[in-house]
Amino acid sequence: MVTVYRLNVNELNEQFIEALQALFKDREVEITVTEVDETEYLLRSEPNRERLLQAIKNIDNGKNLVEVPLDMLHRRDRDHGAATQQNLACLAAVSR
User: Fold this and answer.
1) What residue ranges do the domains of the chain occupy?
2) pLDDT tens string 35-52
3) Rounded to 5, what percent of the chain is helix, strand, coil?
4) b/e map of 62-76 (b: 16 or more CB within 10 Å)?
5) Cα 26 from chain centroid?
6) CA within 20 to 30 Å of 76's CA: 26, 51, 66, 88, which one?
7) What pTM was computed for the model?
8) Tens of pLDDT along 50-90?
9) At what angle do helices 46-61 and 85-95 cross, to 10 degrees?
10) Smallest Cα–Cα separation from 56: which of 91, 84, 17, 31?
11) CA distances in angstroms from 18 to 11, 12, 25, listed in the order given
12) How open is the CA angle 69-75-77, to the nearest 5 degrees?
């Protein structure tokens, strides 16, 4: 049986270990840690690749951009943990 968990290292806690123990009971498991290259992951599918590359062109050319107030960025970071100003700029460029 192969089970893949994708999570931030900060999400590793006692509950996660307990869930693994419950899932695999008394069996021996092998844990492999691999750092994820998010860019590679996002560019894997062709439609996503095209959309992201177009968003980069939009940013480079100053087209289809949306201004996001700084306090909204901080709120999103606090609420969702992973958003950055660059991520939101790309998302804004893509969503237009």
Assistant:
1) 9-95
2) 877 788 788 889 988 988
3) 60, 0, 40
4) eeeeeeeeeeebeeb
5) 32
6) 51
7) 0.39
8) 988 998 899 899 898 888 788 877 765 565 555 445 554 55
9) 100
10) 91
11) 13, 11, 10
12) 110
